[in-house]
From TrEMBL:
Location of the Pyruvate flavodoxin/ferredoxin oxidoreductase pyrimidine binding domain: 15-233
Gene3D superfamilies tied to this protein: 3.40.50.920, 3.40.50.970
Spans traversing the lipid bilayer: none
A GO molecular-function annotation: oxidoreductase activity, acting on the aldehyde or oxo group of donors
Gene: porA
Name of the featured protein: Pyruvate ferredoxin oxidoreductase
Highest classification ranks of the organism: Bacteria, Deltaproteobacteria, Candidatus Zymogenia, Candidatus Zymogeniales, Candidatus Zymogenaceae
SUPFAM superfamilies reported in the protein's UniProt record: Thiamin diphosphate-binding fold (THDP-binding), TK C-terminal domain-like
Pfam families: PFOR_II, POR_N
């Protein structure tokens, strides 16, 4: 069945199809439509879940932690300052190895105050131990919720499904809705081996002494890194069931590309249009879409980009003293390529779309022209910067 729906409602449908059992929610623009739709599903009896209205985003994640520890499938959604307020609890959920799934609708982090789109909120939490998946369109929003539960419950690591505010969250597209029974076939009932068992008393996330803390953190790190294989396996099952494929990264027009732009999220559609336009002009442009940002698929990125002479990265966030986070990851992946510096392409970082400013096809074409002419710099280049 196909329905016309906004990205937020696509997320809500993904949650309902995943048969989530506990929904702690706190509204914040631009994710509020997710919480509202889920409230309707519960009130109408379409989703058998406990809907909990909490007093803050910090409390929402704390409630998810409690629910997941009790072996319930839990979900919440947030944006921007709400995600920042959750920071402490994000670390706790990841360290406790709880398979929570959260949707983050990308909105700029203040100050100054801004309700529009960029990726500064999710990127600021990239090292809290959560898997991160960036959606390009509304279909991917729905499907990524289901896939996130498949992966998280297999590796016991929480997942964040990330979608662009307003560009996806409030924009309607045709979305194919899977049959509930078909989703059940690939997403079985949650069986967390670490959940509370009243017949087997034990402590949960107690004080861990120095003698064992390193080993605990190593297991957490290893689970996240090993999730790469699980993500690929879950993707293969999903493709077999529904015919839609979501690889870790997606090369576009890369076979003979002399200049490649790397991006994540809805902006990849704009980059694809720019690549098509440049190809019509005889310029060998290509794109690499990053869907899985955590864990970062270093080997796959290295494999695709090695030998490309000109590489640019388009970030929708920037951090003072560090630059764009995707550019950092791409540079690190290529640096550890095992080849001499002469075989490693120079990576130029671009920053655009901050605070909701549009990134146009001409902006992207300008980025391609810059790297094709070898005019890259070590500092990120801000697209459309006003003089």
């Amino acid at each position: 069945m196909k329905m016309l729906m906004e990205g937020n409602h696509a997320v809500s449908w993904g949650v309902m199809l995943s048969r989530v059992q506990v929904l702690p929610v706190y509204p914040i623009t631009p994710q509020t439509h997710i919480s509202e739709a889920l409230a309707d599903f519960v009130a109408e009896g379409r989703l058998d879940a406990r809907y909990i209205k909490v007093e803050s985003e910090h409390s929402a994640m704390a409630a998810c932690i409690g629910a997941s520890t009790a072996n319930a499938r839990a979900f919440t959604a947030t944006s921007s300052q709400g995600l920042a307020l959750m920071h402490e609890m994000l670390h706790w959920a990841a360290g406790a190895r709880l398979p929570i799934v959260m949707a983050n609708v990308n909105r700029a982090i203040g100050s100054p105050w801004n309700i529009w789109n960029d990726q500064s909120d999710s990127m600021s939490q990239r090292d809290t131990g959560w898997l991160q998946f960036y959606a390009e369109d509304n279909q991917e929003c729905l499907d990524s919720i289901i896939l996130a539960y498949m992966v998280s419950e297999a590796v016991l690591v929480p997942s964040m499904v990330v979608l662009d505010a307003f560009i996806l969250s409030h924009t309607q597209e045709a979305v194919e809705i899977p049959e509930a029974g078909d989703v059940d076939a690939i997403l079985p009932t949650l069986a967390n081996p670490n959940a509370i068992d009243i017949d087997v008393p034990r402590a949960y996330s107690p004080v861990v002494a120095p003698d064992n803390f390193t080993e605990v953190k190593y297991k957490q790190y290893r689970a996240s890194e090993d999730a790469i294989k699980t993500i690929e396996e879950a993707g293969a099952k999903f493709k077999d069931a529904f015919g839609r494929d979501y690889p870790l990264v997606s090369p576009y027009m890369m076979d003979d590309a002399k200049a490649v732009l790397v991006a994540a999220g809805a902006v990849t559609g704009t980059v694809r249009k720019a690549v098509d336009a440049l190809r019509r002009e005889g310029k060998k442009a290509g794109m690499l879409k990053i869907r899985t940002f955590r864990p970062f698929p270093r080997d796959r990125v290295r494999e695709v980009l090695q030998g490309v002479p000109n590489v640019g990265v388009l970030d929708k966030s920037v951090f003072p003293g560090a630059g764009g986070p995707i550019a950092q990851e791409v540079r690190a992946s290529l640096y550890y390529s095992g080849k001499s510096n002469g075989g490693t392409p120079r990576v130029t970082g671009f920053v655009g779309g901050l605070g909701g400013r549009d990134i146009t096809v001409s902006d992207v074409a300008h980025a391609f022209e810059t790297i094709m002419k070898g005019k890259g710099t070590d500092d990120p280049i801000f697209l459309g910067l006003k003089k």
